[in-house]
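Consider the following assembly input.
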Amino acid sequence: GETPQGARPLSGRHLLVTSGPTHEPIDPVRYLANRSSGKQGHAIAAAAAAAGARVTLISGPVVLADPPGVTVVRVETAREMLAAVEAALPADIAVFAAAVADWRPATLGDEKIKKGPDGPPPLRLTENPDILATIAHRSEGRPPLVVGFAAETTDVIAHARAKIARKGCDLIVANDVSTATGVMGGDRNTVQLIGRDGSLETWPTLAKDEVARRLVTRLAELASIAH
Ligand code: CTP
Ligand code: CA
């Protein structure tokens, strides 16, 4: 039979998850966004709550229901997401599954941009803060286990390995988000787990819920080693 500890391997832990896209306003009625549905991040939050964790889910704009037993903080922009993550710390485990917009419009007017004789307005962009790198590189209050995702369309493993080093996280969940894979917005995901030690594990194509359950089982193992 299963012990209570085995059934709820994350009890007593606080797990923080980011999920969904961010929306970066251009003017009061327009924004930049991406195709993330939030399904994978929300499934991780749900699986972690089912495994006994106290879960804080920081979510960009999604159409999904709040997972049961999870504290959900809704945000719109990357900068709001970073502030919400910092406010939710400390955490034992942080999983950065959100598809954070890399750039936002450099200026934000109070008024709707109007068409005019000068043609389309220039859309100047500026870089958003990197939430994962900011948290993983903290000298104080860094969660003992920091997990990133890597959305790639080519050279998945090479890019993911570079990301793990650059961002300072412990584990990267890499996935191929080429349009043909249907990962963005779809219900299934094919992921590879890349460890800081160079380890590589390829999982079969699975429902996002199943990816979430397996990942949570793995995180519980790693967290019990980290403590
Ligand atoms: N991430 C983040 N904040 C950002 C950008 C990315 O927290 N401003 C996180 C994502 O949640 C993910 C990881 O960083 O866990 C990798 O995101 P990805 O978009 O794959 O990598 P980038 O570093 O943004 O590089 P690029 O998009 O150029 O591949
Ligand atoms: Ca990016």
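The longest helix spans residues 208-226. Ask yourself how this observation constrains the way the partners meet.
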